[in-house]
Amino acid sequence: MSTTVLGYNISAPIMIAPTALHKLAHPEGEAATARAAAASKTIMILSTTSSCTVEEVASSCNAVRFFQLYVYKRRDITAALVHRAEKNGYNALVLTVDVPRLGRREADIKNKMIAPRLKNLEGLLSIEVDSNSGSNLEAYAKATMDASLCWKDVEWLRSITNMPILIKGILTREDAIKAAEIGVAGIVVSNHGARQLDYSPATITVLEEVVHAVGGKIPVLFDGGVRRGTDVFKALALGAQAVLIGRPVVFGLAAKGEHGVKRVIQMLKDELELAMALSGCPSVKDINRSHVRTERERLLSML
Ligand SMILES: Cc1cc2nc3c(=O)[nH]c(=O)nc-3n(C[C@H](O)[C@H](O)[C@H](O)COP(=O)(O)O)c2cc1C
Ligand SMILES: CCCCCCC(=O)C(=O)O
Q1: FMN hydroxy acid dehydrogenase domain location, by residue (predicted)?
Q2: How far apart, in whole angstroms, are the C-alpha atoms of residue 231 and residue 67?
């Protein structure tokens, strides 16, 4: 099941997606998740909005780590985050492009969600936002995130770091082509776990279009709804190099900390291994397009 992503070996094509605020799930937060990733020989992508700092996670284990970046209006703060990640041995930057504003999260509004202070921004950014009318997270995002983020900003990021840059949040062939043209190291097909815009497409339905558009020039990673080893298998059959898992990691962390995250990854690996064996695939390279039939193909076959 082993494979490589950006040249790094991982034990299976299953990586840990960036998700915010792991201490809401477990007191040890991202440090526990990082240890689980290391023990599982996979890569964790640390969120900018983590509850352990870049430095705490770096010192919690010796593993390949990527850093997910949100670009703030304050570019000096964004640059400081990038430099801290690089200095602390993060191996790639994953630029999330689907949060110019936070999506309308009605549960957060109804519950008047108040996000804990973001550890990575302590001493860098202190903004008080009025959350009486709803989600403090939404208000905070609006006050701080740079909604003008666009392609030229990738150039700026390149000028301040040597880390390879991946773009997370690609859903169309046009954006995939543009990303490959400007020479990023990879892309992640993602709709942010369907947390941003209702009616954005299910990622599995656009994966193949993106893979074709990129034509093997850069690796395509995939996330959204991966809950079983068979989901990993389907994504690989449609051309993804590896998948990221978001919620399952947080559920495992909440249930049993580091052990819970390891267990989630092991369950997915066991299921993937079985799906591969039962499909005649001795290695992930043997998983190909003929192993899946899309909904469109199923309907066409009935004509
Ligand atoms: C609670 C939660 C927090 C998230 N926080 C971030 C984040 O900080 N940065 C980011 O790029 N994506 C974030 N995401 C999106 C995930 O990286 C990923 O795209 C998504 O969760 C994948 O779908 P899945 O949860 O179905 O596996 C978050 C998702 C969840 C569920
Ligand atoms: C500035 C706070 C925004 C946090 C967004 C975290 C995230 O990506 C998510 O909850 O989804």
Answers
A1: 1-297
A2: 25
Q: What 3-state class would DSSP assign to 174?
A: helix
The per-residue pLDDT for 16 is 98
Taking CA atoms only, the protein residue closest to ligand 2 atom 9 is 20
Question: Can you give the pLDDT at residue 131?
Answer: 64
Phi, psi angles (nearest 5°) of residue 138: -65, -45
* Residues 249, 17: Cα–Cα separation, whole Å: 8
Please determine, for the modelled complex, whether the ipTM score is greater than 0.90: yes
Q: What are the structure tokens assigned to 51, written together?
A: 């509850």
How far is the C-alpha of 222 from the C-alpha of 236, rounded, in Å?
Answer: 9
Q: Structural domain boundaries of the chain? A: 3-100+145-301
Per-residue pLDDT, 134: 83
Q: Select 3-100+145-301's CATH number: 3.90.320.10, 3.40.50.2000, 3.20.20.70, 1.10.3730.10.
A: 3.20.20.70
The answer to whether the CB of 94 falls within 8 A of the CB of 70 is no
Answer yes or no: is the C-beta of 49 below 6 A from any ligand 2 atom. yes
Model-level pTM greater than 0.80?
yes
Below-50 pLDDT ranges, the chain: none
Q: Check 22, 26, 192, 259 and give the catalytic one.
A: 192
Q: What is the pLDDT of residues 25-45, one digit of tens each?
A: 999 999 999 999 999 999 999
Helices and strands, number each (H, E), in the chain? 11, 10
Ligand 2 pocket, mutate which of 49, 122, 138, 223 (most atoms under 8 A from CB): 49
Using the mean position of ligand 2's atoms as its centre, give its distance from the Cα of residue 49 in Å: 7
Query: How high is the pLDDT of residue 150?
Result: 96
Which pair of structure tokens corresponds to residue 80? Answer: 């400081």
Residues 6+ apart with CB under 8 A from 189: 170, 171, 203, 206, 207, 210, 220, 221, 222, 223, 224, 240
